[in-house]
Amino acid sequence: MKKVILIGEIGCGKTTFVQSLKEIDMEYKKTQTMEYYENVIDTPGEYLENRRYYNALIVSSYDCDVIGLVQDSSSKKCSFPPSFASIFAKPVIGIITKIDKESKDLEYATACLKLAGVKEIFKVSAVEKVGIDQFKDYLK
């Protein structure tokens, strides 16, 4: 099974996605430090939002098979710099979260991830369990 590290801004849905993926009871919690699961690393949003932590993301990604850039479909902010994916020596995928929200903008989220250098994109709703099985299949 592939191991993935999830990188995205604060509140983009990384932890909720992990809870849905791992079938853990969903409860809001702010990720304060990297959290390690069997095949997933959940990172704090501050690690993306503060360039000083980029090295921590790069070093932690070494143990993974794939890098997952997470973009909230309801956000009008793209935290990924252009070609961000190129700093990793692994395949980089995109994950668009919160696709069940009324305020979603899938075109913007897709454009943001493509600008960051992502080729393959998964669209998920952790709450509605949409796209979770497809992502699990990808990790197999």
UniProtKB/TrEMBL annotation:
Pfam families associated with the record: PduV-EutP (PF10662)
Gene Ontology biological process terms, A to Z: biogenic amine metabolic process
Keyword Nucleotide-binding: yes
CDD domains the UniProt entry points to: Ras_like_GTPase
Top-rank lineage group of the source organism: Bacteria
Any GO molecular function: ATP binding
Keyword field: Nucleotide-binding
Family, similarity comment: Belongs to the EutP/PduV family.
Name of the protein described by the UniProt record: EutP/PduV family microcompartment system protein
Taxonomic placement: Bacteria, Bacillati, Bacillota, Tissierellia, Tissierellales
